[in-house]
Amino acid sequence: MRVLIMAAGSRGDVAPYTGIGARLREAGHEVALATHSGFAEMVKGCGLAFRDLPGDPRTPDDAADRDGGGRRTGMRGAGAFVRKLAEGVAQAAEPGADLLLLSATTEPLGAHVAEAMDIPYLGTRLQPATPTGEFAPPLGGARSLGRWGNRAAGRLALRVVDRLYEDAVRDLRRRLGLPPSTARAARLRREAAGRPVLHGFSRLLVPRPADWPDGHDVVGTWWPYVAPDHQLPARLREFLAAGEPPVFVGFGSMGGGDGERLSAIAGEALRRAGVRGVVQAGWAGLEVAGDEVITIGDVPHSLLFPHLAAVVQHCGAGTTAAALRAGVPVVPVPVTADQPFWAHRAGAVGAATAPLPAAGLTGDRLGAAIREAVTVASYRRRAEAVAEGMAAEDGAGRVVEAVARFT
Question: So what CATH class is 2-225+393-404?
């Protein structure tokens, strides 16, 4: 079967789909992954065909994404990103496919491509965005609004997404020769049809809500593909072997333009905590120098994290799951979006210190939290217990089983 995966966003929004793609390829399927050109080598390195999607989130359109003072204007920037994305989804599907696997960012567009091509698609999401009474939508933070309030907030969040995609959906349907439809009407039709949606995170962090529709399942985390013979850089291996397990500090795709401040905070925090450190540059360009710290670029978390004493990070879904998979305590520094939600979930299982919002972060506060994470034994015990449970989950395998039902 020819399977086309469409995923868009930051590295954390795309990398998990490389693991799905690799497993599908091993199962005998012909797999292509459509995403941004900046991830082309990552995709090809997994043995998957690459198809380009425009709208790289690292280089937003300044005219659409900034106000007169040079500040980012989120909704306007997101709208520009979606419009660019819509231009590419149909083109990415032109070589043909028998089944589409659509991420949360591409499903509101890719579903129309599937309709025009008369082929099935499967929703594959990294966030629990389906409304439920059990918790508020992840983008709304960690605070519960009560069962009625949570469901209402979840429905409102979907309406916001509909509005964001409205113009792009209208133009895309016109280009595809489909009857006119609003984004909301199209979503409601998809929901009424009971289309299956798989969620790639652990049931240990977010158990499947009892009030979700049939076919919406939590299957386990989708881990980014790592080649069996891949090794950490020699310089990093030497550092890890030269002393006590260090503490990781990294903010992934967060902190752009704030690298100097975050670097200073990270360096001070590591010194105050009295620990060695591995600092990942990320999109912010962090850099900390010293005999007891090393600054690195992108490396597979699955290879690095088992060697650590704790992980200081922004609490993106993938990085949080990777730390817990390694049985390592988390020090959450949420920045935006769903990160407070995942910070709360890591804390709820007892594997994370209290969140430290990035806006008010200081070296003193971060140093104290690091010290707490590495000295209070219960954090590691709980992280190791979660790791044991995660090892029994096979998220990518569940996707392979679902795809087989379409053959």
Answer: alpha beta
